[in-house]
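Memo to structure team: turn this sequence into structure tokens by end of day. - J.P.
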Amino acid sequence: MGESWLAVGDLTFHLTGDAARLTPADRPLARPFLVEPRHADIEIRARWAATPPAVSGRQLFAGGDAWQLHADGDARLFTFHAQPHDRTPYKWARFDAGFSAGVVEVSRSWFAEYGGDPETVDPMDYPLDEVLTIHALAQGRGVAIHACGLLDADGRAYVLAGQSGAGKSTLARWCAAVPGFTLLSDERLIIRTDRPTPTVFGTPWHGDALFVSPRSGPLAGILFLQQASAHAIVPLPASLAVARLLSCAFVPFHDAAAVSQSIAAIERAASAAACAELQFAKSADVVDLLPGVRRRATR
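Reply from structure team:
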């Protein structure tokens, strides 16, 4: 039996494996998020299983062909599929409605037939780690955002939000070359709003630029990326910033209470920071605008 602790966005997962092989894989970009034993927000037991569960409850959400979420009485059942239209899941996980405890089962027969004989199998590998975090955050803790994030030299955090193709990874590479900036992520951030000052955390879910960090900082500014013919910063009113941030947020829309909690988190984040649209041509000198944004955000 093995156990490990993983912390993402100040959410601590305690994973206990019934078999030595069921442990978090030593993924280089996930390694910074492994932590020493401490109080856990989410308790997880992992074990091998021979037969997938009978899925009879109402489907709550389908993440494409990769995963589905069903109601299972008062519990929630995730199923994960390796191939499109694969009817047999390779992994499934059942959690309580508050996502504070659960069991992950990995198909022994699937790995015997398709997975070869790996030294370890990571029960928490993507997308379970991310979707579980999203649902746990929506219990009043905060929200995950599709964004690049950075810390300035004073440790203040800036969220550069945008959908796929907005230029997050490109901008992250440019920012990484500027002394004093620390990249938190080029793809996914977590904003915790269940504390006196909203706080931004890096995540292990990176984009093309492969920037990840477990570091965090108080939220100081939110910029919405918009490609344009010239650089410009256009301040946004809070109401518009909330709508823009919601469009970049990962929200469990199947759960009305979770949606309400997520919107409240987004409103708190948008009201706590300076919000603007960063219009930029694809030129690295756009980074020269960012110190001005920082001064505007903190005065």
